[in-house]
Fold each of these.
Amino acid sequence: MSGDLGQLAGLVTQYVATAAGAYGVAVLARTQDQAADATLGVGRRLAQRIFGVRADGEEVLEPLADVIDDPDDGDNRAALHEAVHKALAADAELAVQVQQWVQDAPKTGVRVMTSGERAPAVHTNHGIIASGDGNIFPQ
């Protein structure tokens, strides 16, 4: 499974970042509320399993806190990806459970994925996306 951990961490990061953006610090709060959106529910469950449940006001791990503050920032997502990957690599049982949860996740909704250095991943774009060096844009 070690070869797949990076890919699994990427999938988990997408779910967790989506839930973190929607719930904020409450993403780690133990609550009986069910997520209205299946993706948010999976993301929240993954965040709680990987980073633990937190009481109101309790400190949140920095990479997750950064994504909560700015879920669209690529650097924040990269740091979260690294933290997820590290957690999965450190606990084989956790990695197996998370892999199963991701496989069982509803296949509805939008999934945006990318691969490769500087490869863009976009759900909706209303502007220019350029990958590579030396791009020139009309004024």
Amino acid sequence: MSTYMLEIMTPERIFFQGEVESLIVDTAEGKRGILKNHTPMVIALSIGEIRFLTEGQWKACASSEAFMEIRPDKTVIMAQTVEWPEEIDIRRAQEAAHKASERLRQKQSLREYRATQASLARAMARLRVSDDHTVN
């Protein structure tokens, strides 16, 4: 299978830069797969998981909402935060999920409700990625 360049960036660092065979991301419409020579486009990514196949191994990371620019030979993802499974504090993510779940049960303004939903989604993505970090 042919490869293409993937760059994942945050404001603090270049999170990943290298050749990949395949990329799977979460979007508002569901999961989307990207291969070399994909049609150029810009896509908004949902809070969730980024998976990519590099050197015969699947790697996974948790991401905040992001933007992805796809070109035939290169894809760039720009996110506020991205974490490898080993960087995730599981206890903290569990506590954040619990607190967000409790806040969702309380009366809130629409703005507070959306912020709480985003907090819960980030915590759940971290927990999902940390549980699946032994992906083969």
Amino acid sequence: MQVETVTLQIPEPLYQRLVNTARATGQSIEQVMLHALQVGSPPTYEDVPAEFQTELAALDQLDNNTLLQIANNRKTTAEMERYNILLERNQSNSLTDTEQLELIKLRQEADLFMLRKAQASALLRWRGYNLTLS
């Protein structure tokens, strides 16, 4: 991992809080500051399956309005009904081969859909946007 050096001027009260935290936790000031930056950074997408990471990483570049559209997006009733029908038929082992493939595809699409919604919502909150999702 490449490391970069940054010089940053911070207010004395904030610096003192970081020093106090470092002392109280037995860590270096650098460790405390790195942790604060990691916790306060935009949400990561690295814990999701690799097949979705590129799609989620692209959300970082989107403006708030586009992210809000993604966060508020919903599946249609027809899409949800088809998915539920296939799930029920899968439980009773009555899916055809074609339906099994369709269910796999719909499940992947649903996973990506929900991950995109969650990531968009998290990015908006991190950017200070007050979310009221529909």
